[in-house]
Structure prediction request, 170 residues.
Amino acid sequence: MTFIAPLSRFPDSPLWGYYLPVSAEQAAPFVQGEHRRVVCHLQGHHTIYAALMPKDGAYFILINKQVRDQLGLALGDPVEIRLEADQSEYGMPMPDELQVTLAQDEMASRHFHALTPGKQRNLIYIVSRVKSTDSRIRKALAIAEHLNASRGKLDFKALNEVIKRYNNLR
Prediction:
């Protein structure tokens, strides 16, 4: 499904910023119970993985600053959106570095897969947001170490300390 929506902003929300509105009719093919994950192709060439977030009988897709900057978007600009159902296992692509690390560390894999889907995506994002393969490997190893040391209890402050230590191992 392809449509155009204006880049909008929640005026008084400390939590939410910029978003693309999606009508209930446009969202209907992609909302199945609690599953609302979609792949969004923006302006015909930029892809993001997102959730259709409910609001007042309709939905919206959050758009972060990085995406706005990459697409040169300003408030009110029309955005071409093509939606497709997200069929991926995690709601976004799993980076090879994290996949290999989890395949080699059975305990870390068990801890990872015991996490909620949102926490899994959060860890996937931590690894995938960096461009350097070496940095992605270090982040994946730090995540595995943290999951094992904490017995699967995710503590982002402690994880960041482990990541800092791994980043200094150059």
